[in-house]
Write the structure tokens for this entry.
Amino acid sequence: MDDLLADFVAETREMLEASGEEIVAWEADPSDKARLDTIFRFVHTVKGNCGFFDFPRLERLSHAAEDALADCRAGRREPDRVLVSAVLAIMDRIGQMNDAIEAGEDYPAGGDDALIDALQPGAVGAEPDETTPTETANAEDGSSRTARTATVQRSIRLPVDLLDEVMKGVSDMVLARNDLARRLREAGEQPTIDGPFERLSAILADVRGATTRMRMQRLEHLFGALPRLVRDLAHELGKEVVVEFEGGDVELDREMVEMVRDPVTHIIRNAIDHGIEPPEKRREADKRPAGLLKFAARQSGNRISLAISDDGRGIDVDRLEAKALAAGVYTRAELTRMDERQKRLLIFEPGLSTADSVSSVSGRGVGMDVVRANIEKVGGSIDVFSQPGEGTTFYLQLPLTLSIMPALTVESQGRLYALPRSYIEEIVFARSRDVELARAGERQLLTFRNRRVPCIALAHVLAGSETERIDWPETTLVLIRLATDEIFALAVDRVHDHEDVVVKPIPPAIMETGIYAGTTLLDDGRPMMLLDVPNIARDCGMLDDLRARPESAVEEESTAPVRPTVPVMLFTGLDRRRRAVRLDLVQRIDTVEPEAIDIEGARAQVVIDDRLFALLGHEDGPLPEGRCRLLRLSDGTSELALIVAEVLDAREVDEDMGAGDRDRRYAGVALLEGRPVPVLDAHRLLAEHGNPVSAEPAPTREVSAL
């Protein structure tokens, strides 16, 4: 196949996929002229290219669709469901022919007259048998171009191993850059080196991004083909289904995207056929007529968590047991010994189906066992959770060979571990006033913001038992939100910082522990393990507990009025007195040399990043002998620097603080651990002493991990 023909095949496939999603959206809103124009441009482009390559059959099909769409654009015809289905059928046939051209095979058998006749006004709208609803979903994925801005993009074929080697080299450069950055911070400001280093970091970031994109692909390309598939299946089965996506920006290996297409398609077909009820049944159950099919993806180290959920009738475990018993797969005694999770997993047994009859979509008991086999073949796993009458969620974990991801560094028993930031909902301190810890049986529970969630200690997870005593009030609690939207708290000794880390695979023996998802290196070269959050939650029984407990499980009779609080940064001034300032006004924490500070009478200034800031706090005592710590404060209009002796912690204090002394610097006095702590009136200080905010982009907040 010459280069021009290869470009034609690739461009047609890309526009087919993009236009399939557009035409489903256009059907929902026929007045959307922009989407109509997008679809028209696609068939017009295909028609023109077919004339150049002498594909008369393709040209005739695209020309017929172009004429029908032109009538809609000119207002001579109103689009309806029959027309949309006919155009979709034309696009399916174009896709089949495009695949045949690429493979060097003959066109699919069957004439095109029925397809073209269906475009005519007054057509009944029966779709030909040879067009199937899943063919667009099974088309090979392309680049991230949309039909609105589609342009031919030159491409070359490279061995996957070569791309892996390039990514490994870039990842090693990122680690070397992090190590060099740490050494430069320890050495202090060096203008002759800092500038070139920042330039090198920017170049490396660009190279890293480009290299990653060569091997990775966003899941939105997998999601893009699903609305058409869902629409056709729902229409065939007489149901209404709405699709929601979350995490389309999560990236997955290109080959993995292709390998996961068929399993996801099987799950969708089963969800629409078995799970989601017909509109009349949903109304009887006090549900909205249209069912919801939701896809949520998150990255966890070198794994992708993909949750596919529906709000249908759920899995009938009793029926599954009866089917397994009738098929002789398990005995009555074996089924009796199974817990609820094991019974749900019967859905993956070959030959078992909860369908009452065999249909063209499902019911033969073939499919879910293949789904599990295909997922496990690539090193992934699949689990299922279900509540009768509420819905079912399939939970897939897919591996990545190498990734660079944002992570939060936490400490437990003197060792550092990384948590994927995509799972982190919030960080709270167990000793905060609005946090309540209680023991219920063998489970530690956290009540926070009228929500009760279970807690687990990272020390217990790592030890494999709860023999070690945990001082819960002294822990820091990281609230984790899983891809299935459940929340639990992970107790750690301390939270350190967040940064981009390079995650590399670990040996299978370590992976089998279910605790770790990969390994990475700290700035100083020390190894650090990345925690496998979903497996930890499952092994600790979190998923079953979370499914059984309502999201706001705090009993009304025990609910006390919650006093409003505000987060503050706690610090000690140069006079060694504890003070606090509102956390939302702290932009970052800086460290400068004493030479950067200029004090003359009542005027004090400091140089930070080649900029002058008004300085406060110096009047409380002598400057430190070594480097000075500064809190950079800003309210969006003004900014200043506050010199401190030590940054202590982030806390929650009552918003209605008691009145302090008559010092105008303070907004009030908060009580922390029975001791009064003055809270600075930062707004007043910024108004009286601050400099106007620079037009430069706001720096990244470095205090969010506290």
